[in-house]
Design goal:
It is globular and about 40 Å long. Helices cover about 20% and strands about 20% of the residues. The protein is α+β, with helices and mostly antiparallel strands and about 80 residues long. A hairpin with a 7-residue loop joins β1 and β2. It has a single domain, classed as START domain (Alpha-D-Glucose-1,6-Bisphosphate, Chain A, domain 4, 2-Layer Sandwich), CATH 3.30.530.20. It has 2 helices and 3 strands; from the N terminus they run ααβββ.
Length: about 80
């Protein structure tokens, strides 16, 4: 899969603090809680959030033909 997503939001936090949450696997732990209709589980298969990390994204039941997908971090550009 290839693509991008962009959204601007002003924050009182420093860039380092924002990327601490947004740029790592911690976000994967938050998404199922924030968007349970989109993802039901995010698991780290390999890695620590850096290049080479593999995630297994499990989708909620009821999406025909789509149970899960694996995603590999091949480049990280903060």
């Amino acid at each position: 899969m290839k693509g991008s997503l962009c959204h601007e939001l002003k924050s009182s936090l420093s860039a380092a603090e924002v990327w601490e949450v947004y740029g790592g696997v911690l976000l994967g732990q938050l998404i199922p809680q924030l968007l349970p209709d989109v993802l039901s589980k995010v698991e780290v298969v390999v890695g620590d959030g850096g290049v080479g990390t593999v995630l297994r994204l499990t989708f909620p039941p009821g999406i025909p033909g789509l149970e899960y997908q694996k995603e590999k971090f091949i480049k990280i550009d903060n």
